[in-house]
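P.,

For your records, the input lines for the assembly:
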Amino acid sequence: MQLKNDLILRTIRGEQTERTPVWLMRQAGRILPEYRAVRDRLSSFIELVKTPERAAEVTIQPVDLLGVDAAIIFSDILVVPEAMGLPYEMVENKGPFFPETIRSEADFRRLKVADISDDLAYTPEAIKLVKRELEGRVPVIGFAGAPWTIFAYMVEGTGSKTFSKARALLYNQPAMAHRLLQMITDSTIAYLKAQIQAGADLVQVFDSWAGILPEEHFDNFSLRYIAQICEAIHEAPITVFAKGAFASLQAMRYLPCETIGLDWNMNIQVSRKVLGSSKTLQGNLDPAALYADFKEIEKNTKAMLDAFGPYQHIANLGHGVYPDTDADKVRCFVDTVKEYSMRMRES
Amino acid sequence: MQLKNDLILRTIRGEQTERTPVWLMRQAGRILPEYRAVRDRLSSFIELVKTPERAAEVTIQPVDLLGVDAAIIFSDILVVPEAMGLPYEMVENKGPFFPETIRSEADFRRLKVADISDDLAYTPEAIKLVKRELEGRVPVIGFAGAPWTIFAYMVEGTGSKTFSKARALLYNQPAMAHRLLQMITDSTIAYLKAQIQAGADLVQVFDSWAGILPEEHFDNFSLRYIAQICEAIHEAPITVFAKGAFASLQAMRYLPCETIGLDWNMNIQVSRKVLGSSKTLQGNLDPAALYADFKEIEKNTKAMLDAFGPYQHIANLGHGVYPDTDADKVRCFVDTVKEYSMRMRES
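Structure tokens returned:
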């Protein structure tokens, strides 16, 4: 089906567009009362992720309610380790918890490369439903966690400020770490391909914990696996968002991906210069900026748009929208991007 | 009293020294069984901080047990907000918790600029004891949190991955935020001066949460108050450690401080270039590197020393030592710095 709004895809191809496209990381989620209504009817977050009809429903909500230029499939990065043999729970107000973790060679007996059609069919299934219901209104974004971030949870077992157990393994058992990262990478490539096959128009890889690795470790244990993913995915454009990977921006210039996501601490001009003109950039308003009043949000959004310039930019926040953000503030951000970026092209 | 080991002070003055000095952030603490023995005899972490004899005892332990070139006074950055009128608890395995927080103008009625001699006398008192007992063996480091980091805890009330409530205030009530930051700054200057008066040979300001601020906010709400502190402290050299402040390294070049601490994600060569030759640099081995075997620790420590070069460098980790680190691994790090940095000067 022909897309009616393909602004994001044209922007990624480097075309001059009539305005800057906009969406938000975590746009399908707790910021919308309509999401909470769906969620409350199910027993858990993970049940919502695994129920294609409901996942599709909340995926489409922000297109209707916020006016964004893309729908990102409602899911969770940790479905991949689960499909590899390591189940987890999502503890309310605390985050993910893995009862079993990977710390030694013996723990590998639990693991396999994920079989998508067996263990992860619900996400492609939800994407198919979204595509059908959207009728080409906006593109659909598929996604997965980057291998290092998935590894960090599989070893640590929970979120952590330091992920010191996961990072210890990189120093102590690098060969084992590479083996696990390769299994995650193989699973992730298959998972992303299945999402594209089901209809995802582009995909994004989230390296949420890139910023805790020293430069050499990021290059060796994270970036090389992200590069493998980028090299394997030819079917759709790919966006890489490596939060906090300041020191390695230069290296990311050579990633075979179309788009690089910037977090809200990254200087836009410096990043543009370091990453070169062949990449589209995505981001990067501070999520906390949406706590301000409407006038201030407009001002900061315009300043961000000016810094990126009109082309090769997909407007977004510099991280996922915070769950207690007022939906009207999100709409103000979206509307400001649409109106102001159109005016930028007239002047 | 004349210092017998003034390597750190000579390094800070830019002198050519016989070897690179070394100490570790959080060296006095849970890594040492001798610390845990003292701590277990007291009812709480905060009681230990407030008991000068015991605080002095654990301050000196790493000088004897690890062979470091400085003693950093055992204390906590959150004693300053407590002295300003906002008491806190340290919850085991969870971190600090403030029952009352600062979110509105009305909350200011709780607050005052800290009166050091009334409310914070225990730290200078402990420093006096340390100085007396050390008999000049090594210099003593005093410290305080940077105003933004203290502000973040006073507003948020606990540690947080996003400090979204504290950051919301910067967008919503910037005038109030500046007023609170100024009160913290005034308290901190008085506190650092009292520590120097009591005998601290140098002081360090820790901006642990610098890295979650967008560049303009770091410059406006953090760096300008750190600059005020640096300008006010003439009595001893000052080190600024702003974790994650990548985007603002350039601005930190112009801080009137002698030393800049680098975290483990900061590229040493880039930082040296950006910060210029007038600053001494401190850091920055990944704390997780001390989980490796001895050979690997030696290798990584030598690589770090090579990257910094022999002079204007104080060897340290890039963040506080992780509490579950083996003390023998810490000794390996310290010994490697001492031996290898001496050899670096021979070649």
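Two observations worth noting. Chain A has one domain: 7-287+310-321. Chain A touches chain B at residues 159, 161-162, 164, 167-168, 170-172, 211-215, 217, 244, 246-247, 264-267, 270, 286-289, 291-293, 296, 318, 322, 324 (CB under 8 Å).

Regards
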